[in-house]
């Protein structure tokens, strides 16, 4: 009998401040609808130099262990997926292991491939457990990133930051993965990149969207071929993609999920067995079905709209938002997930929502995580953005959270907030 492996629980950490996206639009002389309707944004997380990738990752991981009552001695692997590394050699994972005083008898490392890095870590953990190499241990995978494009840039309203920590085990209360049924697609492209030494990314926006959609098509078709062969979906009265209860996508901005869903449906329409829309224009129109989007995608975007782009964590914020809202309703149903990282790599996979998903999400208490944030003015946001990354301000960390306090002889020093 094959092992059931997947995500047992999750926890989320976000920066302590945010700006209202309409405030940002007005400050930039832009119609707020361009950011709210055009991008699907409501709020945008704002980091300061003390809230770096390590601090966010450690906070999310500590929150996971505490909220879900995880025995640290059970952990045999810790992976951090990030594209906001803090050192060429020393991984974020090593900092997290030390800050949380986790066992020495565990594997720790970072994974990097733009926004796909967290999924790379998740797949490594799932396959480690499924193979038996984990010998009964669990894994913690943390997706932690800060999306930064700079003041008065085209990408400014699509910034954000945060971390999602995933507990991966043989008790997949949140999501039992369909191990081995992944579809992948990779291409060598320059759609988005950040040269060494730069805090802000370089983006070819329209090209990056096209790369995302092309890679999605390849990954989805790869998954669909395996899923049809395994009998999980079929060509019947409905298209294979419609047989998934929900689909969560990588979300650099919320409206990208709408484009992605239309592209996935277009793949089914183009490859359909039997009669269907006869022209490309007709297929394109059907692919953009509002009803399909509302049913399968819309409910996953609540957290992303309030936090912004979190690179590796964006897909898993969508998963968290979906299960927070519909965990009980979706129990026992299969959902699909699409991960994309520029450069580029896409992976489509699926899994069945666990019967205890709602209970696990209640422990994560995501409403409280968002409620504790402070809304700041555009002036304060701009001040924070101009601070040097290596000079954190003397701010005490919140209870249970971590902060970078100083960099001493190139060594990063962190503090944990006490109750």
Automatic annotation (TrEMBL):
Top-rank taxon, per record: Bacteria
Keyword set includes Mitochondrion: no
Coiled coil: none
Domain Hydroxymethylglutaryl-coenzyme A synthase N-terminal: start-end pairs: 3-169
Domain Hydroxymethylglutaryl-coenzyme A synthase C-terminal: 176-269, 287-390
Gene3D superfamilies given in the database record: 3.40.47.10
Entry annotated with the keyword Transferase: yes
Annotated keywords: Transferase
Family: Belongs to the thiolase-like superfamily. HMG-CoA synthase family.
Protein name: Hydroxymethylglutaryl-CoA synthase
Source organism of the structure: Pyxidicoccus parkwayensis
